[in-house]
Design a protein that fits this description.
The complex is a heterodimer of chains A (238) and B (311). By secondary structure, chain A is mostly helical. Chain A has helices at 3-15, 18-40, 46-76, 81-84, 90-120, 125-152, 156-174, 183-194, 207-230. Chain B is an alpha/beta fold. In chain B, 36% of the residues lie in helices and 28% in strands. In chain B, a hairpin with a 5-residue loop joins strand 12 and strand 13 (259-263). Chain B has helices at 41-48, 91-101, 107-117, 133-145, 163-178, 190-196, 214-222, 235-243, 266-280, 294-307, and strands at residues 4-13, 16-26, 29-34, 56-61, 64-65, 76-79, 151-154, 182-187, 199-204, 207-213, 226-232, 248-253, 259-263, 284-289. Chain B folds into two domains: 4-220, 3-Layer(aba) Sandwich (Rossmann fold), CATH 3.40.50; 223-308, 2-Layer Sandwich (Alpha-Beta Plaits), CATH 3.30.70. Chain B has a six-stranded mixed sheet with strand order 6-7-8-3-9-10, with helices on both faces. Chain B has a four-stranded antiparallel sheet with strand order 2-1-4-5, with helices on one face. In chain B, strands 12-13-11-14 form a four-stranded antiparallel sheet, with helices on one face. Chain B has ten helices and 14 strands. The chains are: A mainly alpha (238), B alpha/beta (311). Chain A binds chain B through residues 2-5, 7-8, 11-12, 15-16, 73-74, 77-79, 81-90, 230-238, and chain B through 13, 16, 18, 37-43, 45-46, 49-53, 68, 70-71, 73-74, 76, 78, 80, 82-89, 97-98, 100-103, 143-144, 206.
Chain lengths: 238, 311
């Protein structure tokens, strides 16, 4: 980790227009939770909003946007050479970018789960906390995966969306084997093991597997991104 | 005293050869890397700064390879052609961040010193987004100088910089060179290189076309025969008179009127042409140099070095 890289990445994140998009998504989710709670009463729409919208859509999208903007633009326009033309470990740069992306995802993607859960059904506090913990796990894994993707392609957002919609969304529902390689499913399995009332998944992968798989994705993603940075080449116009 | 050594280095992308078997040694003082656009200058600088591995051959700094060797950046300051995209920072914040990344003991003081060196103290606390091209160029230079490097690499540093700032930048680089630093800058403009560098390396189409003292290369460039197109009221009459002149090497009639003239001694030709025309009662309607472009100068150099069998 490198304090300067972290500071620069935070400044970049807060200084870009994407930041407002990031803020908008959790705000819409919480607003929706408030409206549903007011109109339909306590407990209504809990799974749909918390799990379907929050964990299934807002969290991965926030992770995708924060992670790809932490590394992608600088690699695209080549200005990352200003960071790389220094005697700084490439893996420390990757880890610092990861830390900032994760921090932002926790703030804009995971914390809102907690808020929405308590707004929708205060009596299911245990389940909400379980989903929150599952969300932390998902944020860690998504950021690791998307960091690796951002390090190889400038189309990280497209690739990330395909992963979320086609792999986790479509195929995840059709083929049961995909659950072993679905970050959303790992999060569900962890939440499942933490609270009886969090259950909506019938065929999870188990908390132990979810934790180990997440650790592999995080370490692998950061290591891979660092390795790509080590081999970053500046192309001339020729 | 640091020496960049490029040894039989080539770099290709698929079928495209960007740099073709180049050997050069860049030592202390200011060296100009001259060549037309697309000649491979940026590719060379990328290899010299450790941001591109040569496809074959080697590129070293004081015998240490540059590729994947982050320790070399303690000795190298790089000013890439690429614009800085850190618009959300002030100039000072950017330079301080560079100082911190170098692990300097007092980043604030080092940054202030570098900003002072490039004469940018006044604007240092404004956001980079508000900077002109010349100011950006100077803050890039400050960020490259912040750790007092022995080697300074600049890719097209004068592009888009207004004349006054250009003079200032040149003065700065000249000073860096006399301080004993190894300064290499690339440019496609002959006059820029002439004003600044004592030693130049010419690269054309990925090949090393010439190397050495600027005066010698300049002579090599101006010694080449010049070509002119001349239109007149009597092309054949003029041709007959011209071919008798020692300064004229060849005359050819153009299919649609006019003469192609190859000139050896330009000064003499310029002096004799009007006199000849007047003596023959011939009216000159057009006198046009045909291959004054830098590319033609370069291609002359390449073919010249090819004839001498140097490479």
């Amino acid at each position: 980790m490198n304090a300067t890289i972290i500071r620069l990445a935070l400044q970049a994140l807060l200084g870009r227009r994407r930041f407002w998009l990031l803020l908008l998504m959790p705000l819409v989710m919480i607003a929706l939770a408030v409206v549903v709670r007011t109109l339909a009463g306590e407990g209504a729409g809990y799974e749909e909003i918390l799990v379907g919208l929050g964990l299934g859509l807002v969290l991965p999208l926030v992770a995708l946007l924060t992670t790809s903007s932490a590394l992608g633009p600088e690699m695209d326009d080549g200005s990352i050479v200003y960071l790389l033309a220094k005697p700084v470990s490439r893996h420390a740069i990757a880890a610092s970018k990861y830390a900032v992306a994760l921090l932002a995802t926790l703030g804009f993607g995971v914390l809102p789960l907690l808020v929405a859960g308590f707004v929708l059904d205060a009596s299911r506090g245990g389940a909400t906390v379980a989903w929150f913990v599952g969300g932390v796990l998902a944020a860690a894994a998504y950021c690791g995966l998307f960091l690796a993707v951002s390090a190889v392609t400038k189309h990280a957002v497209v690739v990330g969306l395909l992963f979320l919609l086609v792999w986790e969304g479509l195929l995840g529902n059709l083929l049961s084997g995909v659950r072993w390689l679905s970050i959303g499913n790992w999060a569900g399995s962890l939440a499942d093991s933490l609270s009886d009332r969090a259950v909506i998944h019938t065929d999870g992968v188990g908390a132990a597997y979810a934790l180990v798989a997440t650790a592999v994705v995080v370490l692998g993603g950061v290591w891979f991104a660092g390795d790509r940075l080590r081999s970053f080449s500046l192309r001339g116009d020729t | 005293m640091s020496v960049l050594q490029v040894t039989r280095a080539s770099r290709w992308y698929g079928n495209v050869v960007a740099v073709n078997d180049i050997t050069m040694t860049i030592g202390p003082g200011v060296t100009g890397l001259l060549g037309p656009n697309g000649a491979g200058k940026s590719t060379l600088i990328a290899m010299m700064s450790g941001f591109l591995p040569p496809s074959s051959g080697s590129v070293t700094l004081d015998d240490r390879p540059l590729w994947r060797n982050r320790e070399v950046y303690r000795a190298i300051g790089l000013v890439p052609e690429r614009e800085i995209s850190f618009d959300y920072l002030t100039g000072r914040q950017f330079v301080v961040a560079n100082a911190e990344l170098h692990g300097l003991a007092d980043p604030g003081a080092a940054a202030a010193r570098a900003i002072e060196t490039v004469d940018q103290t006044e604007a240092a606390d404004r956001r980079i987004a508000t900077y002109s091209k010349g100011m950006r160029q100077r803050i890039k230079l400050a960020s490259a100088l912040v750790h007092d490097p022995a080697v300074l690499l600049l890719d097209e540093p004068f592009n888009g910089v207004d004349p006054r700032q250009r003079l200032h930048l040149m003065e700065l680089l000249r000073r860096m060179g006399t301080e004993g630093r190894t300064v290499l800058f690339s440019s496609h403009i002959l006059e820029e290189v002439e004003q600044l560098a004592r030693h130049i390396e010419v690269v054309v189409s990925g090949r090393h076309a010439a190397s050495g003292d600027f005066g010698a290369i300049r002579r090599l460039m101006t010694d080449r025969p010049d070509r002119y197109v001349v239109r007149s009221s009597d092309d054949r009459g003029l041709a007959a008179r011209l071919i008798a002149e020692p300064s004229v090497l060849g005359v050819a009639l153009r299919p649609r009127g006019g003469l192609d003239i190859e000139v050896g001694d330009l000064g003499d030709f310029a002096h004799r042409l009007p006199a000849l025309a007047r003596a023959g009662g011939i009216r000159l309607t057009e006198v046009l140099p045909t291959d004054e472009s830098l590319e033609s100068v370069f291609s002359y150099l390449v073919s010249g070095s090819g004839q001498r069998g140097e490479r």
